[in-house]
Amino acid sequence: MTTTETIRDIDHLILGAGPAGLQLAYFMDREQRDYLVLEANDRAGAFYERFPRHGKLISINKVYNGYTERRAQLRYDWNSLLCDDDGFNFQNYTDAYYPNAQLYAQYLRDYAARFDLKIQYNTWISDVSRAEDGSGRFIVRDADGNLYRSRTFTVATGVSKPYVPEIPGIELTENYFDMSIDPKDYADQRLLIIGKGNSAFETANHLLNATRVTHLASPGSIKMAWQSHFFGHLRAVNNEFLDTYILKGQNSVLDANIDKIEKVDGEYRVNITFTHAEGQRAEMAYDRVICCTGFRWDPKFFGENCRPDMACEDRLPAMTSGWESTNIPNLYYAGTIMQIRDLKKTMSNVLHGFRFNIKSLYNIIAQRHESTPYPSHRLPLAAEPIADKIIDRVSSDAGLMHQPGFLGDCMVVDRETGEARYHEGLAVDYILDSEFGQQQDYYIITMEYGDFEGNVFSLEREPHPEKAYNDAYLHPRIRHMRGNALIAEHHISESLENDWRLNEHCGKRKLIRAIDFVGQEDPTQYQQTHFDKLVCFFERQLAVDTASATPMCHEMSSPTACSTACEVAQKA
């Protein structure tokens, strides 16, 4: 760097004007922070003009959901970014359940314009380093030689490079990134697709009418998203191909290692070893091989003094529970790369999950760098208003629902003031790692699944409201904590509509008229039953002296361990 170079000082730099960068920029802009988004393309959302390759999103757009509250509508609108304008949302663009990706690109461009976000387009980043003056600030250089200096740097570029496994001959194959999507190019051909994720099945379904035979191959077996709750696993919208395999339509799904790929006499010779056949081997011949093995994050623009640690076979950056680099302070991550914190567990890899992560990330950045306390609501230290608040949150908030067990609310008890501070939408591991987890009396409120082993469509349901800890499906869970020690917990029975509010329901007319719980006299009062038991829990817990309470085991496996936690309170 020469002394003649000028540097533009900005408090917060954001790299990338996709949905993640736009979402963080929105919160920065709303609070009038000094920020700038740098985008390589000449418009926002350019990724969706090309991906998914076959043009259809797999995130749902359920326009008719019965709710008029925007926060509840977001439970079924998986594409809209968060904003304070209830009238500006993606559902106004289309009523298609699985929308068109090009239309979504238009929505992102309109979002950037609607909120007049500070975005500098046509800006390619060539280098990111740390200032040598000891300030810890970032020095960012673009391809035109312009320099930017910032206190924080947030990468929201997504996973922009294909992940290519180390297989001899893999360089001979085509890739999902640049393959032809014209079915005519595959007419009467033998096709091997390497991978069994959504991009692989999306490709197989798109070419179903054209190929003579299509095989999908990878070492592991298919995992369905409705079983694992991870949206990187196969979505039902993409599983049409499975019918053609199981019902013998000439196509196959192979659990096999690809040992070697060679090009011989105009065809691909592929040596494989089956993973569930005692090591049986085979040589297959194909006309085309397409690699659909996923994506990876590209850290190439980071300099040597600023190179972040990597994780997941160098496919994703390593980060703390606050989405900060594990080795580069004040380097943050937003968007699908946030998934390393809940990898293959919840929804941080997709928009309807990470938009809520980003809201929390903004609050963390504001707290650390702008001296702004993490937002909270004050509640009287009494069981009924606390129960009211929790019931409202678990019945309407999309973040708790879409990030089960990963995002939670944190309620800190202040016995001196007789109040509770209710903080919404934090990562549970961040709660435990941060100052919240050092509190001697606080609660974590989440929505979580229970045991999902076996046939997900044939699970025994729990009809006893005091045994909701046995529920397999999504339901609220409240933990009373002292530091990192669990004092007590309470589960609320699952609901067909994920709504536990008293005398309220979605839609113009009520769907559920009565539910007969064990021990309940009037089945029309099922919501009152949930509320009363939650009030009972808090009446007991608010009377507990946490300093002398006996912590519970973190692994709840028996009815005596976690019925309603009243027994634990009594012991204290």
TrEMBL record:
EC number annotated for this UniProt entry: 1.-.-.-
Pfam family, one: Pyr_redox_3
Gene Ontology biological process: ERAD pathway
Enzyme class at the top of the EC tree: oxidoreductase
Keyword flag Secreted: no
Keyword check for Protein transport: no
Domain of life: Bacteria
GO molecular function, one term: monooxygenase activity
PANTHER family, per the entry: FAD-DEPENDENT OXIDOREDUCTASE DOMAIN-CONTAINING PROTEIN 2, FLAVIN-BINDING MONOOXYGENASE-LIKE PROTEIN (AFU_ORTHOLOGUE AFUA_4G09220)
The protein, known as: Putative oxidoreductase CzcO
Source organism per UniProt: Rosistilla oblonga
